[in-house]
Structure formats: structure tokens, C-alpha cells
Design goal:
The protein has 56 residues and is mostly helical. It has one helix and no strands. The longest helix is centred in the last third of the chain and has 25 residues.
Length: 56
């Protein structure tokens, strides 16, 4: 038996079975998640400003 025997050839999937999948990307963040990040940033900024005024 040699590697060129048709019985030993590696099986290749038929291209007609399924179409190639498009590349998958991470879904875009929802509006709610964006608002949450903005609120978190604003809250942190307020804490920094209030802390700076209080300790000055």
C-alpha cells in the first residue's frame, strides 16, 4: 500500500454541502451598555472633582 492509493487519500468535505461561513465579529455593544459606560465615566469624574474640591 502506498500513499497514492485512492483508498488512503484523506477525505475532503464536498464544497456543495455547506456554503463558507462569513467571518464572525463581536456584536456591537447595545445602547444600554454604552449609556452605562458613560454614566460610569461621569460618576468617576464627579468623584474626582468633588474629592479635589473637598481636599483642597
Amino acid at each position: 500500500m502506498t500513499a497514492s492509493d485512492p483508498g488512503l487519500a484523506p477525505h475532503e468535505p464536498e464544497p456543495s454541502r455547506h456554503e463558507p461561513e462569513p467571518p464572525r465579529y463581536e456584536p456591537a455593544p447595545g445602547v444600554g451598555k454604552l449609556v452605562l459606560w458613560v454614566l460610569l465615566f461621569v460618576a468617576a469624574a464627579v468623584v474626582v472633582v468633588v474629592g479635589g474640591v473637598y481636599f483642597a
